[in-house]
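Task card 7
Instruction: Convert sequence to structure tokens.
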Amino acid sequence: MDRKWRRSVLDVRVMRGADAASDHQLLEATIKTKLRTIFVTLQEGFTTSSASSF
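Output:
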């Protein structure tokens, strides 16, 4: 886990019974995110805000 995202992880569970045809275990994680507001300047000089989504 990258240090940048360490505080965003709220809960992690291992799904041991899931059939993934692999020797790895599947993880289920709950994370918190915040959406940023990006201010866009239009050609006429007006400023509007729009939320960015990933």
